[in-house]
Amino acid sequence: MSEDYTSMWQDLGLDLSAHDALLNVLGSGYRDIYLAQKERPEGMGYFDFVMSEVHGLRIKELVDEKAQGRKIIGSYCVFVPEEIALAAGATLVGLCSGADFAMEEVEKYLPRNTCALIKSSFGFKLGKVCPYLESADMIVGENTCDGKKKAYESLGKLVDNLYVMDLPQVKSENGRALLRSEYDRFRQAVEAMTGKAITVESLKQAIETVNAKRRALHRLAGLRKADPAPVSGLDALLANQVSFYDNPARFTESLNKICDELEQRVEEKKGIASEKTPRLLLSGCPMAVPNWKLPWIVETSGAVIVGEESCVGERGVRNLTNDSGSTLDELMDAITDRYFKVDCAIFTPNPDRLDHVMEMAEEYKADGVIHYGLQFCQPYLMEAVPVEKALEEKGMPCLRIETDYGMEDVGQIKTRIQAFIEQVG
Ligand code: BJ8
After folding, report:
1. Is 301 within 8 Å of 414 (Cβ atoms)?
2. Is the CB–ligand 1 distance for residue 221 below 6 Å?
3. How far is the CA of 375 from the centre of ligand 1 (A)?
4. Nearest 10 degrees: Cα torsion 373, 377, 382, 383
5. Is ligand 1 within 6 A of the CB of residue 147?
6. How many Å lie between the centroid of ligand 1 and the Cα of residue 327?
7. Which atom of ligand 1 is nearest to the CA of 311?
8. pLDDT tens series, the chain, 425 aa
9. Interhelix angle for 45-52 vs 16-30, to 10°?
10. Which residues are registered as beta bridge partners of 299?
């Protein structure tokens, strides 16, 4: 880290020794997993820098924004529209966590058989180690899976700024009407917090900013269709993860620069692995920082990941918001339409996701799909079965992996993945 941020972390109320321990684990994990990769694009230096400052410079930026009166909104789900936050003069950051922390404490609040993602969010709060959570003026929870919606009842007792957004579970007219009214309610809550009314101009501008970020991520995704793959799945995942924290305009510019370099690589047929290396698609639960376990296992076992059907991946960013509306109502409708297409497994039925996984497998010329389900995540584990069946009917091999954030099962997963790679290769 470029500076000593101890006093800033202290002011945010972090537990300094626990936070130090977390940074150490994060730092050594990053070194062993990311910096050990070969043939990385030079532009990834930007993400190395961002990660080295993820609790430093970026937090200082947020603290400075707060000092100038800007509000920070933390969110746990891609259903929370960044467009609305930006249009009201607020900054949105992702809060999902990808590491176990303070598990003993967590299990005083949540049953053991809760998914690692929810437990981790609680662990970061109870362990007082997340400066994003502690900087947030509003924390948005959403009624998606049963685990999350019940967990927010407990989280509401641990924080005094939780806002719960209701979400539909069915893609019907009523479902869309609920989403639209919840987005209006959220807009009003954010306006009341920032004291800034959203205008047609500010919303259009915000839509453009977020669309530009998504377009850059589409560009990155498109380049991964090449063989040899110009960038690793680990690095592409990192770009997607950082998109939840970074300043959106800076992120877009930096990612576009990396894509320029990757375009060059594709032209020169330069890859992170040789041509014809087995290509795998990941599908399933989101992977929040620093959850790099599965891609790390896959890419150190002789395959390359070419896409993620995930909220930290294509499910989260594939659709753009139409900015052609000329009234607030039309723009809010466009936002609702855009987010209503997100095919999270909490929806029932959810045929779009099955179609999307198959489309992606074809487009990215995958040799096989790994379905990633977090233990105790009912929506994704349940959908893993029809996903696997649909893929296999099309002759696309699929491997279902169910795991958590622990490292105890790495050896066993590696053996299964190596066998799968042999099969598809
Ligand atoms: S839109 S995927 S970000 S809810 S892993 S907490 S589903 S038990 S994270 Fe998600 Fe929004 Fe959907 Fe995307 Fe529950 Fe499963 Fe845990 Fe999950």
Report:
1. yes
2. no
3. 12
4. -50
5. yes
6. 32
7. 13
8. 778 999 999 999 999 999 999 999 999 999 999 999 999 999 999 999 999 999 999 999 999 999 999 999 999 999 999 999 999 999 999 998 899 999 999 999 999 999 999 999 999 999 999 999 999 999 999 999 999 999 999 999 999 999 999 999 999 999 999 999 999 999 999 999 999 999 999 999 999 999 999 999 999 999 999 999 999 999 999 999 999 999 999 999 999 999 999 999 999 999 999 999 999 999 999 999 999 999 999 999 999 999 999 999 999 999 999 999 999 999 999 999 999 999 999 999 999 999 999 999 999 999 999 999 999 999 999 999 999 999 999 999 999 999 999 999 999 999 999 999 999 98
9. 160
10. none
pTM greater than 0.70: yes
| Gap between the Cα atoms of 317 and 336, Å rounded | 14
Indicate the residue type of 65: E
Q: Assign residue 369 a region: left if phi > 0, alpha if psi is -120 to 50, beta otherwise?
A: beta
Q: Whose CA is nearest to atom 15 of ligand 1?
A: 377
- Ligand 1 centroid vs 145 CA: distance in angstroms? 6
| Ligand 1 mutation pick, 117, 375, 383, max ligand atoms within 8 A of CB | 117
